[in-house]
Amino acid sequence: MTPDALGALQPTRFSASRTLVNKMVQERWVISRAEFNIDASGQGNARYHVAVNDDWSFEFVVFSNAPKEGVERTDRIIGSHWDMMGALIEGAAGDERIEQTKRELPKLYGGRAAPGTLIWCRANRSMRAFDLTVEALSRGEQPPARVLGAVCYLMRNTGLDGNGTFGTRSFAAYESDHPLRTPYHAQMLTSYLMREFSLDLAEHMAAARSHDAATLSHDFRRFLGLGNASGLGLVLFAKNHPQMVDRWITLREASLAEARDLILAPDAPELDRLDSLLERAVSYKAKDRMRYTYQPAAELVSSELAQLRSRLAGLRATAGEPGNLLDSIYKASSGLTSETREILAALLLELLPAPEDMASLITVEEYAPASPATPVGELLDIIAKDYAWATGVDLDDPSALHFGWYKSANAEEPRRGPLKDLPSGFDDMTLDLPQKLQHLVPLLRDMDRSTTAGSVSRKFPEYRATIERLLALRDTGYHTVRANTRDEHFNPAHIIRLFNSAFYGLDKTKEDGPVGVVGVLFHGAPTPAEIADGTGHDWLFPAEPED
Fold this sequence. Notes:
Elements: H1 3-7, H2 16-27, E1 30-38, E2 44-51, E3 57-64, E4 84-90, H3 94-104, E5 117-125, H4 127-138, H5 145-148, E6 153-162, H6 185-209, H7 218-223, E7 225-230, H8 233-240, H9 242-260, H10 269-286, H11 298-318, H12 325-332, H13 338-349, H14 358-362, H15 376-386, H16 388-391, E8 403-407, E9 414-418, H17 433-445, H18 453-459, H19 464-472, H20 493-504, E10 507-511, E11 517-521, H21 528-533
Helix pairs in contact: 4-6, 9-13, 10-11, 10-13, 11-12, 15-17
């Protein structure tokens, strides 16, 4: 649970974007463009219909804006102009709800979502990639792969608001048969539809310029995803949702152990599948045009994956009988970069049978009451067992107590800043376990071990939240990032990348400045036509289209 280890975790079959696509393909959802009243500059409205079954459907309402000269386009929620805004609404949107959404959505904090709205969203064009694509298509050509391969999207998500925000439906209120009753599936469906709109818009604007315009090739429509940028809010999210973090990582760890325990013959189809996936991964990383900061270079990862593929071939050639070949190949990755090891781990999960009920596996009850009758002796045992990393932090180190975490006054955006620059009495949102526990432990040791946690909380209310957290999480194993987030050298990008890559399923995630991570959603995901046909579910490591 160290930041660098968590930041290396890769998208897996349990990531939200991938579980949604698998569900859509399996159930053959039908996504259609119901309305597209947009002019040659990109100004206008569109509406997409998503038919799930006889009981459920959704509509995605889009308000598209042409970029205006002199008007600032921003990723921040306090902005006032985006290239598109949209809403995912249950059932047929209807004129009344569309008009309310059009009126309220631009207000954001001052707005109120129409009834049945699940998500509000915003996005901006990647101007160079988008304009190059429109220009190429208008000439009857495909866009330059060498340029789009370094971006991998035409639009970038700048905000997905749901789960009660701005009056959207709360996830807890979703009915038991709701098609999106899996964490983040509403956000992921919205993101998928944003991706489709960005591709449709580019084709539409190209066709407005020329009757001879081309449409995007199937390879490009698969290859291009939706850009995404995330910031410090995910570090605070990890602090506030430890049960969710534990569930995702426990699921991953248990599944990896199951895969490593498989007894396979050298000619087993699972090993053929692994070899094929490794071959694709080698090529994918070799052609990766992204430039990474703290992650190993893509060329190195490609080389190491090729080593593992050769190692797998050697194991199959020399194994005379069934055995733990997957465990052997996993152990063979121990000396390689963490990026390579985690790609291999993600591929091993692909070899297991698909879970029957993904929603129940991923959904977790986050309210865990703490027992106030717990004796101090048990509290001390919990701290010694699970939090030695925190009590061992050297708080006398000049860098140890550098940052404070808070929300900005103008937009309630998560921020961190040097404590010396923050006003006294600011609303400190830091999960400061090292300092709290190092002050709490001596107090507990001076008490009788039979003293109850409740009485300690009454006498020392400043430690109540810490004590309740210790007790609520005592039966979980992967709940807290083992890091002093106040430390001057703490890199939040590792935790942001954990959510983006492992939990949400973004590809090509990389550090964007000191406090952000960017990446691509639905990179290689199937088209709506393929989803309706029940195909295209295998979309790992998409190949870059040829120029």
